[in-house]
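cron nightly-structures :: item 1 of 1
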Amino acid sequence: MKSIFYAAQSRGHARHGWLESYHSFSFAGYYNPERMHFGALRVLNDDWVAPGMGFGTHPHDNMEIISIPLSGDLEHQDSMGNKALIRQGDIQVLSAGTGITHSEYNPNADRDVRFLQIWVFPRQRNLSPRYDQKAISDVLKKNELGFVLTPDPQGPGVWIHQDAWFSMGEFTEHTQGEYRLQKPGNGVYIFVLEGEMRCADRDLARRDALGLSELESIEFEAFSGARVLLMEVPMQA
């Protein structure tokens, strides 16, 4: 098994007044040649957006873009005619394919929004753009990992054009768990949203991450209670 540890404080950081963002991988003004991607996982941004502010209309292509609100709401509008409100407890995917434009705003005047913006390389280029959004509360159970994203259009959560599986879980103190990879050769990127846990002989705190490859399964233990996002992706981008 190979492992790469990503300490929370080592991430890139950008502050733009209305936006504060932490970049796990090179993005915009943050460039680190040793942190370009983890396999097919290209971007993991931990974003804070002030009330009434947001990202104006901008283009994307040939990327699977996933948004997961951690608190607050996010309003989405795109060139395919979709307009939706994404809330905490939802997951959204935008397959940019041949090209789309979209905007993202915090529609609330009295509270901020915190969300994860995640980009995954698709397995095929120049596909037709598509949009999907689902509530994930039904697939999340205490002290268990639940799939919130898969490659299967009939699976739980949303789906993308890649052999990737995202799982989320919230674990109480001293709870142990195991994750078995869905496809041989994939790796898994473990991102601790809250709390503390131990995985692969490594103690992880809030917003720490661990990239693992060349493995079939991984065991972990929550210390003081933990909320975690596991992203299984192909290692060949």
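cron nightly-structures :: done
The two ends are 19 Å apart (CA to CA).
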